[in-house]
């Protein structure tokens, strides 16, 4: 039996509930998993669950957010005077990609979302939040404010390309057990960003 999760006092509590929801959705299926099941497994009242999550499917959003959090952190530290390819190459560790339990849980949810619109919606909500954060990184590289129309357009195109890449990596891993090499993932990521931005994002400034 798990220890009850205190959503009021534990800063990591929503992520803990999210992990439980992702586990139940993967194990039992989305239709068979109720909000009451997630709450019971987390050791909290169902009304408490609904106080912090708008639906059972939205419970997985904190886990999904972990999927891109590390890259977002790296992206924010990208110096203007270095190209993205050189920056990521210097920060990368060659060899097979290493996935944490949260990475695997998130990729499973992404794959389930191909057939479950509500889970897909949760993934898109997370991607939308990441897109808004990315505008603050891309704006200075375009010499424009983060809220400029041109920045929003470029950021939307890049975010769509990265989301498509994440979908493909998740499908390959979850369905086929394919673990890509880190350097191949980064090379594809750089290519996607440069292509989606028509070459405006990627070079040094």
Keywords:
single chain, 205 residues, mainly alpha, Arc Repressor Mutant, subunit A, Tetracycline Repressor, domain 2, 2 domains, 9 helices, globular
What does this structure look like?
It is a single chain. The protein has 205 residues and is mostly helical. The chain has two domains: 47 residues, Homeodomain-like (Arc Repressor Mutant, subunit A, Orthogonal Bundle); 133 residues, Tetracycline Repressor, domain 2, CATH 1.10.357. 66% of the residues lie in helices and 0% in strands. It contains nine helices and no strands. The mean pLDDT is 93.
Quaternary state of the chains: single chain
**Beta-strand share of residues:** under 5%
**Structural class computed from helices and strand pairing:** mainly alpha
Order of helices and strands: HHHHHHHHH
Major pleated sheet: none
Q: Please tell me what the overall shape is.
A: globular
Helix content: 55-70%
Outline of the structure:
The chain is mainly α.
Give the SSE map.
Blueprint: H1 13-28, H2 35-42, H3 46-52, H4 61-76, H5 84-91, H6 101-112, H7 117-142, H8 149-176, H9 182-196
């Amino acid at each position: 039996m798990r220890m009850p999760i205190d959503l009021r006092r534990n800063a990591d509590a929503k992520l803990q509930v999210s992990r439980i929801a992702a586990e139940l959705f993967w194990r039992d299926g989305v239709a068979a998993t109720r909000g009451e099941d997630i709450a019971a497994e987390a050791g909290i009242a169902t009304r408490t669950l609904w106080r912090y999550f708008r639906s059972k499917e939205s419970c997985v959003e904190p886990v999904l957010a972990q999927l891109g959090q590390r890259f977002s952190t790296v992206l924010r530290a990208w110096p203007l005077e270095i190209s993205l390819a050189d920056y990521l190459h210097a920060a990368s560790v060659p060899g097979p990609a290493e996935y944490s339990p949260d990475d695997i849980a998130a990729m499973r949810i992404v794959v389930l979302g191909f057939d479950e619109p509500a889970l897909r919606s949760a993934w898109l909500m997370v991607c939308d939040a990441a897109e808004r954060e990315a505008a603050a990184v891309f704006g200075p590289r375009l010499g424009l404010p983060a809220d400029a129309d041109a920045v929003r357009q470029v950021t939307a195109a890049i975010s769509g390309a990265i989301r498509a890449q994440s979908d493909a990596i998740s499908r390959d891993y979850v369905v086929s057990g394919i673990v890509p090499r880190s350097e191949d993932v980064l090379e594809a990521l750089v290519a996607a960003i440069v292509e989606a931005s028509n070459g405006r994002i990627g070079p040094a400034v």
